[in-house]
Design goal:
The protein has 13 helices and no strands. It is mostly helical and about 270 residues long.
Length: about 270
């Protein structure tokens, strides 16, 4: 009997490619983007300049990369707790470790998003402010509040084991909202990152959601899992609605802001329910 493994091999190759793209985009880990296929604009085997070349299709792997990011934060949390640091100090170092691993990608997005909303009166003005590499007063305040809230909620969890689990799952689940925002809001610009990244399909959304549900309901009580799921989704939805109304759609900065707000609310829900 002949068994055809072509389909399985193709699926494994696709998952590996998507994982590399997601890792290259979401972290500073030295992962090379995959090779581009042949089409009208590229030659087969040409190196992709940016992971955005495959980004929409790779969003299913965002929660997997989120797990790795959260695991690094959880490891720092456990080590600093073991050497006797105060819980808030341990939590701050855990948040810092995750920001270092990602290059502050999402934190930068949140700061730019808030700067744009606070400093501009017209859509084009807001978008131009968000493109400015300098941080303003609104963005600075947003970053301070962001880091402080995450560290506070982590430090308030009842045990180290629960805190470690919350850091990992919140990092995982909050990155599942990114493809949802990409799917349900249009790009704000016709020449920016969001336009080039494409639009995730229902398959990517389903996989990201399934990974999130498994992580939440296998780790926490039903009440905490449901609360975290609803809180994270609500946070991302609010950011998406504001972006649609004030910017005309999403940008890379909007995606970062949605992730950060979602992570804050997931941690808050777990701290309140467990």
């Amino acid at each position: 009997m002949h068994i055809d493994f072509t389909g399985a091999s193709h699926l494994i190759d696709r998952c590996w490619r998507d994982l590399r793209v997601a890792t290259a985009f979401l972290t500073r880990l030295p992962v090379q983007p995959p090779l581009l296929p042949a089409n009208d604009d590229t030659v087969a085997g040409e190196q992709a300049d940016k992971p955005a070349d495959y980004l929409a299709g790779a969003t299913a792997m965002f929660p997997v990369v989120g797990f790795v990011i959260g695991a690094v934060g959880a490891l720092v949390l456990a080590i600093t707790h073991a050497i006797g640091l105060h819980p808030i100090a341990s939590a701050l170092l855990a948040v810092a470790a995750m920001a270092i691993l990602t290059g502050g990608l999402h934190e930068d997005g949140l700061a730019d998003f808030v700067d744009g909303l606070g400093g501009g009166t017209r859509v084009e003005e807001r978008l131009n402010i968000m493109r400015d590499s300098r941080i303003g007063a609104f963005g600075t305040l947003a970053l301070i509040i962001d880091v402080e809230l995450r560290a506070t909620f982590i430090s308030q969890l009842a045990s180290l084991q629960l805190a470690v689990a919350a850091v990992i799952v919140a990092a995982l689940a909050s990155r599942a909202v990114i493809p949802a925002v990409m799917r349900w809001t249009p790009p704000a610009r016709s020449d920016g990152f969001a336009f080039g990244a494409g639009r995730p399909q229902p398959t990517e959304l389903t996989i990201a959601l399934a990974l999130t549900l498994v992580a939440l309901f296998l780790t926490f009580s039903i009440v905490a899992a449901v609360a975290a799921l609803l809180a994270g989704a609500a946070g991302a939805a609010v950011v998406a609605l504001i972006a649609r109304k004030r910017l005309g759609g999403h940008t890379g900065d909007v995606l970062g802001a949605a992730q950060q707000v979602s992570e804050i609310l997931i941690l808050a829900a777990i701290a309140a329910a467990e």
